[in-house]
Amino acid sequence: MRHRSIREAAGVTLPELLIVLTIAGTLTAIGASGFRSLRAATSMRAATWSVRNHLALARSLAIARREKIRVRLGPNGDLVLLTASGERIVAAAVGPEADVPVDSLRVRPSTLRFNPRGQAAPGSVYLYRGDRVVRVVTNFLGRLRVEAFRAP
Question: Domains (ranges, CATH) in the chain?
Answer without folding.
Answer: 13-150 (3.55.40.10)
